Amino acid sequence: MAESRIEKAGKNLLSSVLQKVLNLALIYVSRLVFVKVLDAGYLGIDGLFSNVLNMLSLADLGMETVMMYSLYQPIAENDTKKIGTLISFFRKIYLTIAVLILGAGLALIPFLKYIVNLEKAIPYLEWYYVLALLNVVMSYLFVYRTTLIAADQKSYILNKYIIIFKGITFATQTVVLLVFRNYFVYLFAALVIGFISNLRQNAVAIKMYPYLKEHSLALQPEEKKQIGTNVKAAFLYKMCGTIQGNTDNILISVFVGTLFVGYYSNYSMIVAAVISIVTLIFTSVKAGVGNLIASGVASKNHNLFLFRVLEIVNFWLISFCVTCFICLFQDYIEISFGTDYLLTFPVVVVIALNFYTSNIRQNLWTFRETTGLFFETRNITAVTAIINIFLSMILGYFWGMFGIIVATVIARMIYAWWKEPLILFHKYFHVSPKEYYVTYIKRVCLCTAVCAVTYGICNLIHMKNLYMSLLIKILVCIIVPNGIFLGYFFRTKEFEYLYKKVLGIFVNPKRFP
After folding, report:
1. Residue 36: CB partners within 8 Å, gap ≥ 6?
2. pLDDT at residue 360, rounded to an integer
3. In the predicted model, is pLDDT for residue 22 greater than 90?
4. Quick one: pLDDT band at residue 483, thresholds 50, 70, 90?
5. Nearest to 118 by CA among 300, 23, 259
6. Residues with Cβ < 8 Å from 37, sequence gap 6 or more?
7. Which pLDDT score, from 0 to 100, does residue 476 have?
8. What's the alpha-carbon Rg for the chain, to the nearest Å?
9. Are the CB atoms for 9 and 285 separated by under 8 Å?
10. Which stretches within 38-123 are classed as H helix?
């Protein structure tokens, strides 16, 4: 019997979270070795290159989102010919993207000296950058097939291979650092293993969907036009979002120093890992929501109820993470890297706020992408990015790192937080977003109160043994916020629905709606 949407979402969720938790553990240990073996300057350029290359990846932004949206209906209808045609069409686009990113990346080499701000110069900087660039370019040679697996709600099949190759990459890079103490060989190892991993995932996709090897028909002109319109809109939306999310390190490097990018990267490493887990949770759900909407088996009232259910999940996850960041970050950094790598507590608070204001919209993004509202929302992040860059330069000049990060928070709150739900509720649900805004404000107050209470309790814990102190604080962060949230949501219809569905994954899975 075919798997239900709930079963697939459950498998994707469990395997994705396992994969990301293991990846986080490997990244943590790898970072410890990295800091011990190489100079802090290398940590700075590692974080800086990551942001620069994310900016270069603008060429593909929106493509994967539109590709998944285009595949939902033919997958629901089991139209293999249409799926093959779409995959062939996107293959050509992705190859073009790979060439564009490579060309743009190489063109940026002469400008590296203007954004790297170190007291002690690092030799062979350009070669390090080229290796990191090739690692990014390579991924676009295979993604058009693996995206089909995600759209078909079967990401869990690929996750086991991702886990295996992440482990191999970690082990190899750790050995390379300890034996050669060389950053070039460290990056080269990641490039080679990444290529093999992509080859393997590509082979899995071909085995699962053998019809992809068959000759496919060309898309009709009107279909190409519609996809092109969606891609342009999604590109603008995500391009500006990426600029907004990846300029902080560049501005910190310019205004404060590249060394502080390295200090900040120890915090942002954990934030990025947590974001990837949260994103995977909603990605696991997104294909099911997209399939549900494309099939038309549920009413918009039911879909609005489902939106509210997922809003609780979104808020609970993000607020719990914010509480942990504020209460645990400083102890974690001190134990892992030493007091020299600590940032001030106000900076820690704005790092947590930055995480909250961005990721509290994960559910909005899920419904935006599955309902196809690309054109209507295309300008939201453009306006936000312009405000962000303007504020970051001003506040960064006066307040340094704190000002740069808090500018990103302010920029989102000025425009994006109210505009995006307004469009979704008016264009798709056809109801007023007033209730959403009121609920949002109430939950911001709830999150603030939970953070204050939990931090106050953690602040009472003073032990000479830092490890024991951190362990007790972790227990407080697990019990207090989740206990409050459980009491707050327990009697709601949305929580009752969520509880039954989650329990159903393990006991008696049921289909939507």
Report:
1. none
2. 93
3. no
4. very high
5. 259
6. 177, 178, 181
7. 97
8. 23
9. yes
10. 40-56, 63-76, 80-107, 112-115
Query: Can you tell me the distance from the alpha carbon of 102 to that of 136, in angstroms, rounded to the nearest whole number?
Result: 9
- Token look-up 């109210």 returns 418
- The mean per-residue pLDDT over the stretch 171-200 comes to 88
What's the burial of 399, exposed, middle or buried (CB within 10 Å: 0-12/13-18/19+)?
A: middle
Question: Distance of alpha carbon 225 from its chain centroid, rounded?
Answer: 29
End-to-end CA distance of the chain: 18
Report which of 154, 130, 160, 164 is spatially closest to residue 52, judged by C-alpha positions.
130
| Of 55, 1, 503, nearest in space to 249 by CA | 55
Maximum CA extent, the chain: 70
Asked, as a colleague might, if the bond just before 74 is cis with ω within 30 of 0, I would say no
Instruction: Tell me if 53 sits within 8 A of 102, measured CB to CB.
Output: no
With bands split at pLDDT 50, 70 and 90, how would you rate the model's confidence at 513?
Answer: very low
Helix axes 300-337, 466-489, angle to 10 degrees: 170
Per residue in 81-107, pLDDT (tens digit) is: 888 888 888 888 888 888 888 888 888
Spatial separation of the C-alpha atoms in residues 477 and 332, rounded to whole Å: 14
Does the pLDDT of residue 296 top 70, yes or no? no
**Mean pLDDT estimate for the chain:** 82
Confidence of residue 155 (pLDDT cuts 50, 70, 90): confident
Nearest to 166 by CA among 299, 16, 295, 66: 16
